[in-house]
Design brief:
Length: 218
């Protein structure tokens, strides 16, 4: 543990050891208050940021994200009108079109990064936060937390949204484009995924699991 420098919020010590992700320095884990952060004294890497109430925030964000999933995938993202013809395209149709055009590799990549990984991420966060909120501590919980850490690295719905925006810019002179309900739902889904990645303190999830286990030993 290091002494807080000016600008840092004082933190209290807990009984765990953590390793700096950048330089592998072993340090005593500390509880960081809201708005504060703990830094590695050797390399300055941010070890932890104070994100209180991570469990309830994860539960709310994952429920909203899961509710947005169906509409984001099935409802039209864009409506394109040209020469009196109108065509609606959803995310599911876009992936199928990529596949039927022979771009199966791209279709699989889009499916994983924009659909499967975000869905799995939301479901894992929902399951974990709901169980933690219920003060339970099943033995398989650590496996879910580790799996979620891996899945989170593949969840990149924002990349698909960037591709949609590039298409809009390129097609705006050729056709009239209107955003569909699916696009708004997809943006909401993307925001939930981003907030789950930035607002949720994984350390707090682990600590809550351990305190649940310590409070109710079997
Ligand atoms: Zn370090």
């Amino acid at each position: 543990m290091h002494a807080p420098t000016p600008g840092e919020t004082p933190a209290t010590a807990s009984n765990h050891i953590t390793a700096c992700a950048e330089c592998d320095l072993l340090l005593e884990d500390i509880d960081v208050p809201a708005g504060g952060e703990s830094l590695c004294p050797r390399c300055g890497h941010v070890l932890r940021e104070g994100c209180p109430d991570s469990v309830i925030h994860a539960l709310i964000l994952s429920i909203v994200g899961l509710c947005m999933f169906g509409p984001a995938i099935g409802l039209p993202l864009l409506s394109m009108s040209t020469a009196g013809l109108r065509h609606d395209a959803s995310l599911a149709q876009a992936i199928l079109s990529l596949g039927s055009s022979g771009l199966w590799e791209v279709a699989i990549l889009v499916s994983i990064c924009a659909v499967i990984a975000p869905l799995l991420n939301m479901w894992l966060m929902f399951t974990v936060s709901l169980i933690l909120q219920m003060r339970s501590h099943p033995a398989w919980m650590p496996s879910l937390l580790r799996l979620n850490h891996t899945v989170q690295e593949w969840a990149m719905p924002e990349v698909f949204l960037m591709a949609v925006l590039v298409s809009v810019v390129k097609l705006k002179d050729l056709a009239q484009l209107l955003p569909g309900v699916g696009l708004y739902c997809f943006v909401c889904l993307m925001l939930c995924a981003l907030l789950l990645g930035t607002l949720i303190d994984q350390h707090e999830l682990w600590q809550t699991y351990e305190s649940n286990r310590d409070d109710n030993p079997r």
